[in-house]
Amino acid sequence: MSNMSYIDKDPNNQELLAELLLSVYFPNVKSWNAAYGSFFSRNYSGDLRSVHPETNKVTLSRNGLYDILPEKMFFDVEDLRFRESRDLAQRIDEIYEEEKNIKDYFLPLDSFFFNHSCQYHATAANLIDNEAKWLLKQLFDYDIEAEENVYVKQIAPLLLHVTEIRADLDLIAHILSEVLDCKVDYQVNHQDEVLFVVHRWDLTSQEYYAFVKEIRPLFDFVAYWFVAMEMDCIYKVKDYHQPFILSNEKPLVLDYNTQI
What is the pTM (predicted TM-score) of this model? Predict the structure, then answer.
């Protein structure tokens, strides 16, 4: 069965190369049987059309060897012009079957080149990752491998762009939204204080306090590196999915931060 459902949840994945997606979602698979579905299918799907890790098979929206070779090497399409309708339909069915067999013939070569490309992208990603770790250590004396907080570990590489991010509250809120996978906005309470509001709903009281504690290192990191030096940085978690309601028809619902 294809395992595309959770990959497709992120719309950005539609724009990514199959090699990158497979390295993220299936890092332990070292070899794939790659079936090329021609570049025409890219009009209605991403580069990675389907993946079956149990059989190491993937289907791609790109041209294989068969697609880039001249059609004349395999079929005499001019011959179709002079056939009767019934004979023409039969010949077209035969061509489709022959085409399938030809693609199966090229499958080992297509898979060889695809796996070579996967190895190339994995090597490049590893070099970039190692370079980022080295630069963080040299420029900021920050050891990302020693970082224990999962949220801080995601945002730490952005230190390399700190001059572009610092004091840009809109950008910082957007980055936090991506890292926390929920809406984050902000308000400037005073000239020297910014409040980030994290919209995470449906948490129990235990989950709420655990989440607030878990993200504290993230906001400490953001306050130290990205927020302007003259501003204090505070945060709170809000449940706007269940706002304050008071009526005769509905029960009283309290937000996390509602004060009575």
Answer: 0.58
